[in-house]
Design goal:
The chain has 2 domains: 244 residues, Alpha-Beta Complex (Spore Coat Polysaccharide Biosynthesis Protein SpsA, Chain A), CATH 3.90.550; 37 residues, no CATH class. The longest helix has 14 residues. With 285 residues, the protein is an alpha/beta fold.
């Protein structure tokens, strides 16, 4: 089966702003044995110079794929209470539920690893497990009610004609690191009819429905529970939340949590004392 590791990211003015992406790429390199395509989707704003810089920081082969720039859509008003989420975030959610299909026709298995994630798990093993599943993820979580208004009823009204089980809540796989079996998903025609309807209704943009509850709804309604799995082997550091998902005893775990321990637990006066001892050999008051 043809496998791919993918990310959607953006270009920056300063090359040092790619540090998180580079850390992510290096963590991928550390955790695989076989060679898989590693695709970086972007809006055409990562220059060739910056692409070369990013590629020079890892031994894995990177492929940069340009997608249409994210821009505001006409006649769209944000639902009250969701205004803090801009167009970029809504486009990202839309990409990972509706648009990414057109760029992944040549692949069977896709492992999404976001820019702000450093992983610490065996990628080869996850791909092997994914061959038998529709979806593999590290955590299943409930989404906020403020950004899922109307989602549950929308699902239930749409799928009522198919006599599927009722969706109970807006929840789903933590999608910043998630694996999809594209072959199994493509076989489900109801999924793509739903995607077409949702694209027409534009609720991802108006209501800020995220890809997390949308995928959660699809998995819950269209697939049996044994077809998707929460896998605690999927361990990674999520920079945006400053948290490790499924902590495992690893170099990554020690590195990230030792920094947290030093900052939060050791009193500042002790750190100043230690610094003076090391730098001057005496204590200054």
């Amino acid at each position: 089966m043809k496998k791919v590791i993918a990310v959607l990211t953006k270009g920056y003015k300063n090359i040092h702003q790619y540090n998180e992406l580079i850390k992510r790429n290096n963590s991928i390199e550390r955790n695989l044995k076989e060679h898989y395509p590693v695709v970086i989707f972007h809006e055409g704003n990562i220059t060739k110079e910056h692409q070369n810089f990013i590629s020079s920081k890892t031994n894995i082969s990177l492929t940069f794929i340009e997608i249409p720039p994210f821009s505001p859509k006409e006649n769209i008003e944000f639902l009250e209470g969701t205004e803090s989420y801009g167009w970029g975030y809504r486009h990202m959610c839309n990409f990972w539920f509706i648009d990414f299909w057109r760029y992944t026709n040549n692949y069977d298995l896709l492992l999404r690893i976001d820019e702000d994630c450093e992983i610490s798990f065996n990628i080869d093993k996850i791909f092997k497990l994914l061959e038998q599943k529709v979806c593999i993820y590290g955590k299943w979580v409930k989404d906020s009610e403020s950004v899922t208004k109307g989602l549950v009823s929308y699902f239930n009204e749409y799928f009522e004609k198919y006599n599927h089980s009722e969706l109970k809540e807006a929840s789903g796989p933590y999608t910043n690191v998630v694996g999809f079996n594209l072959v199994k998903l493509r076989e489900n025609k109801k999924l793509f009819k739903f995607i077409k309807k949702l694209n027409e209704d534009k609720f991802i943009f108006t209501h800020r429905w995220g890809d997390l509850p949308l995928w959660g709804g699809i998995l819950s309604v269209l697939f049996s529970k044994n077809e998707y799995v929460e896998e605690n082997l999927i361990s990674y550091f999520h920079k945006s939340h400053e948290a490790i998902v499924n902590p495992q005893m690893s170099i990554l775990f020690v590195k990230k949590y030792s920094k947290h321990f030093i900052k939060k637990v050791i009193p500042l006066k002790i750190l100043i004392y230690a610094k003076n001892i090391l730098t001057k050999g005496r204590i200054n008051y």
